[in-house]
């Protein structure tokens, strides 16, 4: 049921109401003198069209880029055909993950993993997109060039951040870089994502508060053995990643 707001509410709270429409994927009805006069709808509705290219990026190593890329691919693969992870890291963690999973089970993973064509990654992504693939790009740490390429071609760049002061600080550097790029790439969308959170830990609460000052994903990925032990296996359909995908679709859906 759509919420109703009088025209005067709209005058006072327009930015926060529009955020609500987009972030929560809910329509609102505008009323005047008790009569409905207009409807405000989100650009993309939940469950319809989410983004087609998502990059996991950070200059900082070990923040969970590969782990989240693989788990996100798993969740999306349950809904869409043709999901592929592009491994843009020379360490080839995602490719090795796939190789191990194929050794363990004949079906392998429910999505593809391919090596990035490093000097032509934008062309590679565009081609996969045109073939109808959903693409998740796993990027290497400390590689500004790849971060820029991946974020340019992606509909959304996610920056996983671990809940320590040092990581929040390094995450901020990656976010600043993306913010700067947005001047030249107007449709660039990016968001920080708190990973390995332990809700009862002071450091996690502090990191959470700092991230509230930035563009962030509200879903938080907890510290769990299920993630730590997932390498080389078919990623499990974990609820936090499902929540993450739902939030991404609601807030960053595209009509491309
Ligand atoms: N939510 C989580 N809970 C527990 N362990 C996690 C979680 N996310 C990641 N890890 C663990 O953290 C370590 C680093 O994760 P991962 O390799 O995905 O990070 P990365 O950002 O891809 O690293 P690199 O920058 O080296 O490519 C791994 O041992 C992984 O299992
Ligand atoms: Mg990695």
UniProtKB/TrEMBL annotation:
<dbReference type="InterPro" id="IPR036165">
    <property type="entry name" value="YefM-like_sf"/>
</dbReference>
<protein>
    <recommendedName>
        <fullName>CobQ/CobB/MinD/ParA nucleotide binding domain-containing protein</fullName>
    </recommendedName>
</protein>
<dbReference type="Pfam" id="PF02604">
    <property type="entry name" value="PhdYeFM_antitox"/>
</dbReference>
<dbReference type="InterPro" id="IPR006442">
    <property type="entry name" value="Antitoxin_Phd/YefM"/>
</dbReference>
<dbReference type="InterPro" id="IPR027417">
    <property type="entry name" value="P-loop_NTPase"/>
</dbReference>
<feature type="domain" description="CobQ/CobB/MinD/ParA nucleotide binding">
    <location>
        <begin position="54"/>
        <end position="230"/>
    </location>
</feature>
<dbReference type="Pfam" id="PF01656">
    <property type="entry name" value="CbiA"/>
</dbReference>
<dbReference type="InterPro" id="IPR050678">
    <property type="entry name" value="DNA_Partitioning_ATPase"/>
</dbReference>
<comment type="similarity">
    <text>Belongs to the phD/YefM antitoxin family.</text>
</comment>
<dbReference type="InterPro" id="IPR002586">
    <property type="entry name" value="CobQ/CobB/MinD/ParA_Nub-bd_dom"/>
</dbReference>
């Amino acid at each position: 049921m759509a919420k109703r707001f009088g025209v005067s509410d709209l005058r006072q709270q327009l930015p926060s109401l529009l955020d609500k429409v987009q972030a929560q994927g809910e329509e609102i009805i505008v009323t005047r003198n008790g009569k409905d006069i207009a409807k405000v709808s989100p650009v993309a509705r939940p469950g319809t069209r989410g983004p087609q290219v998502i990059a996991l990026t950070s200059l900082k190593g070990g923040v969970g880029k590969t782990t989240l890329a693989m788990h996100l691919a798993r969740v999306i693969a349950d809904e869409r055909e043709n999901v592929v992870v592009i491994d843009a890291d020379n360490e080839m963690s995602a490719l090795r993950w796939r190789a191990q999973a194929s050794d363990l089970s004949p079906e392998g993973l429910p999505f593809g993993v391919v090596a990035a064509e490093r000097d032509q990654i934008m062309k590679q992504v565009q081609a996969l997109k045109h073939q109808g693939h959903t693409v998740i790009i796993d990027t290497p740490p400390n590689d500004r060039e790849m971060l820029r390429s991946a974020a340019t071609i992606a509909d959304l760049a996610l920056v996983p951040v671990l809940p320590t002061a040092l990581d929040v600080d390094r995450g901020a550097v990656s976010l600043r870089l993306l913010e700067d790029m947005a001047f030249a790439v107007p449709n660039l969308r990016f968001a920080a994502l708190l990973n390995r959170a332990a809700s009862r830990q002071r450091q996690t609460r502090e990191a959470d508060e700092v991230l509230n000052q930035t563009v962030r994903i509200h879903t938080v990925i907890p510290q769990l053995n299920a993630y730590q032990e997932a390498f080389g296996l078919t990623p499990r359909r974990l609820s936090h990643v499902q929540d993450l995908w739902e939030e991404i679709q609601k807030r960053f859906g595209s009509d491309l």
